[in-house]
């Protein structure tokens, strides 16, 4: 029997055209556009947006799981995130720029409506962060500042 | 496949890359492929042009003057935006301040943009010099050196100079006519409270620069393609709006006299090397 740490996830990516990479994962597929989209609109989300979206999805799903463990009803949840590269001009290849093209910071707010008081919510939120694969990965290389805000 | 013509551009804001993507696509569709190289400052771009790393440089007026200086005049201006021609820098004062003529700025504080901004520093200071006013001797200079190296493309220094005037920390501020128009229209500045004391002589702004050795035939092919870009075509208009033009015009070099005189009198290149 393989060790738990041996479990891995696999994706396959294929070039469709200059503005589209198609990603195949288990029984799903989705399209990625630019690495870091700068236009107001594009045919597909960019890689950096998928990353932010994945983090938001991870946290929402994680919070719901933690609440279910504690038998707390979750009425609504929504996250707004903003991500910033260390220097987007390095990503664009600008000669003479310094820094790096990596993610520097993610900030945002998690709005949650649930049958829980502030203390319970804080405990649930901490457990969510501790068990979030993406939060635990990204927090080791970028400054993450995601605030939980209870709403009626 | 034709070897693409390499065009250099200085960018300070990532959205500018979108403009260049559109230009590149346009040239490819017209059968005259180009590629772009981005630089963080004009000094690097001028060096790249002189060293032959790029064929064409989208140059600020100061970068043009620098290329003329370093190449011994062996360069040409291929094209420019309609809005690059006949620009004016305004020296703005508070309405009712009692400052009615340039000479009234003697002993006062004048706010300018960045050290290397032609429109918000070098040219207005030259205009003041023509009125007999030298910074440090006849008036106090408050300079806002935001993103030096980008030749004032980044309007932050210019805006800070205007704020300085608005906050009462300066008696005058130097602002490009287009920015003055924009800021009085969008409410950044209350046009009833401030007025233009005087405008500098008209000058030209950016141009596409090549060295003399760039083949004439290639230059003509490239310019002809550029001139096929039309504001009437919705596919081109978005990019042209972003870049702030309604038509591309032939490059002319008669509009850089005041700046050339300014960098000489102010010993700009001697101080920056």
Walk me through this protein's architecture.
The complex is a heterodimer of chains A (152) and B (273). Chain A is α+β, with helices and mostly antiparallel strands. Chain A is 30% helix and 32% strand. Chain A is built from four helices and six strands; from the N terminus they run βββαβαβααβ. Chain A is globular and about 50 Å long. Chain A starts with 11 loop residues before the first strand and ends with a strand. Chain B has 273 residues and is α/β, with parallel strands linked by helices. Chain B is built from ten helices and eleven strands. In chain B, strands 2-1-3-10-4-11 form a six-stranded mixed sheet, with helices on both faces. In chain B, helix 1 links the parallel strand 1 and strand 2. In chain B, helix 1 runs antiparallel to helix 8, helix 2 runs parallel beside helix 3 and helix 4 packs across helix 9. The N and C termini of chain B lie far apart (41 Å). Classes of the chains: A alpha+beta (152), B alpha/beta (273). Chains A and B meet through loops of A and helix 1 and strand 2 of B.
Reported for the largest beta sheet of chain A, the result is: 3 strands, antiparallel
Number of helices of chain A: 4
Indicate the mean pLDDT of chain B. Answer: 95
Strand content of chain A: 25-35%
Class of secondary structure makeup of chain A? alpha+beta
Explain briefly what this protein structure is.
Chain A is 30% helix and 32% strand. Chain A contains four helices and six strands; from the N terminus they run βββαβαβααβ. Chain B has ten helices and eleven strands.
